[in-house]
Amino acid sequence: METNPALGDVTCTACGARFDAEAAPGRCPDCDGVLDATYDRGALSPSALAGRPRSMWRYRELLPFAPDGAVSMMEGGTPLVSAPSLAEELGVESVYVKDEGRNPTGTIDDRAASAAVTAAVAADATDVALSTTGEDGQSAAAYAARAGLASHSFVPTRASFTSKAMVNVHGGDMSVVEGRIGDADAAFADAVAEEADWHPVQAFATPYAHDGLGTAYAEVAEDLGWTTPDRVVHATGRGAGLYGFYKAARALRDLGLVDTLPRLYAAQAEGCAPIVRAFEEGRESHEPWERPDTICGRIEIPDPAGSSLALDALRGTDGGAVAVPDADALEGATSLAETAGLELGASSGAAVAAARELADRGEFDADDTVVLVNAGAGSKDDDILRSHLMSKGI
To answer: pTM of the entire structure?
Structure first.
């Protein structure tokens, strides 16, 4: 597997230890910190992108491997869809939804899986593994199948039936763990300790998944004519998407494609908001959320591995963090379906609700361009969204 010539080493974000990128462990063996790939990037002109396919691998400068040989199903190239009625409501110039529900398995996780499974192939792995709230397990199973690898997903009982079913449809091995994501995380950690040849592919258990997620931001910038949106609101669980966007935004600036960074905002559910609480209290990392309880299962992560990196993203862009009630998140998703025709997952509805809260606080300016990230297809949460409508008598 050919690596990106600009790929440097892999650095522990906690203790600063450095490792060779081609032999990088999943987490830092010294302190168990999150690892992050470094790059020695030059410059890039829009004309250089002109002949490249419209997939995430179009942005090879942001990724650890060359596109030739990558495990890919043309993930990426998702549309940036305007939502003029929401723009009018928020009192801003324009609102766009980055619709990641159009990816092969219907989520932004396909970008992470493409990068992480490609890394597993480069490491001559035979098996990949992760703990998952559901959707990234489906994605990992799909990309492992394409690469001819076995996959092992540790899924809490609360995960949706659809995601659990699709792990099996793609031929993946699935362990359903009694309890919540923390219980699945523990079972995954125990299994990886016993199975030394299993290659972790979940966000922040590999240095490369969040680089894949960041390519979604590169598409936003390109679709806006290489201008920077003023605000990006991202529903946040582990923090990987938020940090991936931050890293990609800085890379585009370093490459000379844009001049500025967007303000990044984390949206979480009130019933599980460790990153929001840490941001509001001015801390550098989170404290685990003791009793997580939200219908937004994708972002119900009480002990997010990437909290410090997500907080860096918020503070490094002068952004913010908002926790919203479940009812507001569900209303956010269904209202976009009713007024803009867009199908957002329940958890991504938190981004809509957070944008409304930010507008009410006076955070937005009249000439702002606001981007909301839809991390997954609404059809994955059809029962939850329909139940919300029924509760309103619809």
So the answer is: 0.97
